[in-house]
UniProtKB/TrEMBL annotation:
<protein>
    <submittedName>
        <fullName>Amino acid/amide ABC transporter ATP-binding protein 1 (HAAT family)</fullName>
    </submittedName>
</protein>
<dbReference type="InterPro" id="IPR051120">
    <property type="entry name" value="ABC_AA/LPS_Transport"/>
</dbReference>
<dbReference type="GO" id="GO:0016887">
    <property type="term" value="F:ATP hydrolysis activity"/>
</dbReference>
<dbReference type="InterPro" id="IPR003439">
    <property type="entry name" value="ABC_transporter-like_ATP-bd"/>
</dbReference>
<dbReference type="InterPro" id="IPR032823">
    <property type="entry name" value="BCA_ABC_TP_C"/>
</dbReference>
<dbReference type="GO" id="GO:0005524">
    <property type="term" value="F:ATP binding"/>
</dbReference>
<keyword id="KW-0813">Transport</keyword>
<feature type="domain" description="ABC transporter">
    <location>
        <begin position="10"/>
        <end position="254"/>
    </location>
</feature>
<dbReference type="Pfam" id="PF00005">
    <property type="entry name" value="ABC_tran"/>
</dbReference>
<dbReference type="InterPro" id="IPR027417">
    <property type="entry name" value="P-loop_NTPase"/>
</dbReference>
<keyword id="KW-0547">Nucleotide-binding</keyword>
<dbReference type="GO" id="GO:0005886">
    <property type="term" value="C:plasma membrane"/>
</dbReference>
<dbReference type="InterPro" id="IPR003593">
    <property type="entry name" value="AAA+_ATPase"/>
</dbReference>
<dbReference type="Pfam" id="PF12399">
    <property type="entry name" value="BCA_ABC_TP_C"/>
</dbReference>
<keyword id="KW-0067">ATP-binding</keyword>
Length: 257
């Protein structure tokens, strides 16, 4: 396995994943720099979600390993990986539809208290009032405060996605993985999600974002990796990716705005 430089918080090294005869991921070497927003783009079926699932422990790689801050994740259960400070927003929101929106946001904060991952080790028990306040602030930030008493199941698809983002953020992860966070959103909701993600960028949280919408990608990404047919065909700064002829040919249809 290749050496991991010190500012790299996550390193997927030589990862392969086969589903039967299908090579979903081949020769993946992905390095994510701490504090940065790293976008993974590529056509449908390229292997983007599979790569995220390998990172969070939902899918075991056929070979290779993923290392997070010096800890080998491969072989660990998803909840153990989550407790190390990795959260993921799924492509399909996973919320508690019969609970009020506010309780949906509070629940992961309670789970956080007993976890190995704590931002403040000197304050092991937070009161329910503190957590409620934090959840209300979070709902304000994502524009859902007015819906806090409604059942989460009654929200629109776009609002459910934002709720799920809030449920991840309240865990205060060190690494946040987002699988198409703006899919199914209106342009207005997409823009407010970009604003929210920009806000958390300044908090130093590392983010990996899978996204189809190039407006979102180029608004947020510090670095971009391009997946095609299970391989990373290019990795670099947004400007480099825009100008890379291989990327234009494989994915971007000849020109990028
Ligand atoms: P993307 O997220 O880039 O659209 P995926 O990672 O979902 O792509 O899928 C990559 C390839 O792996 C596709 O050909 C898909 O059909 C296949 N695939 C994904 N998950 C499974 C699975 N659980 N079993 C078999 N094939 C799968
Ligand atoms: Mg996908």
């Amino acid at each position: 396995m290749s050496e991991t430089p010190p500012n790299i918080i996550l390193h997927a090294a030589d990862v392969h994943k086969n589903f039967g005869g299908l090579r979903a991921l081949s020769d993946i070497d992905l390095q994510i720099e701490e504090g940065k927003t790293h976008a993974i783009i590529g056509p449908n079926g390229a292997g983007k979600s599979t790569l995220l699932n390998v990172i969070i422990g939902r899918i075991p790689p056929t070979s290779g390993a993923v290392v997070f801050d010096g800890t080998v994740l491969t072989g660990k259960a998803p909840y153990e990986i989550n407790q190390l400070g990795i959260s993921r927003v799924f492509q399909t929101p996973e919320i508690f539809p019969d609970l009020p929106v506010l309780h949906n946001v509070m629940a992961p904060a309670f789970a956080r208290r007993d976890g190995a991952f704590r931002i403040n080790m000197f304050r092991s028990v937070e009161s329910e009032g503190e957590i409620r306040q934090e959840a209300e602030d979070m709902l304000n930030d994502i524009g859902l405060h007015g819906r806090r008493e409604d059942h989460a199941g009654s929200l629109s698809r776009g609002d459910k996605r934002r709720l799920e983002l809030a449920m991840c953020l309240i865990q205060r992860p060190r690494l946040l993985l987002l699988d198409e966070p703006t899919a199914g959103m209106s342009r207005h909701d997409t823009n407010s999600t970009i604003d929210l993600l920009r806000k958390i960028k300044s908090s130093g949280m590392t983010k990996v974002i899978i996204e189809h919408d190039m407006h979102v990608v180029f608004s947020l990404a510090d670095r971009i990796s391009v997946l095609a047919q299970g391989r990373i065909i290019a990795s670099g700064l947004p400007q480099e990716i825009k100008e890379d002829p291989r990327v234009q040919e494989a994915y971007l249809g000849g020109s990028v705005e």
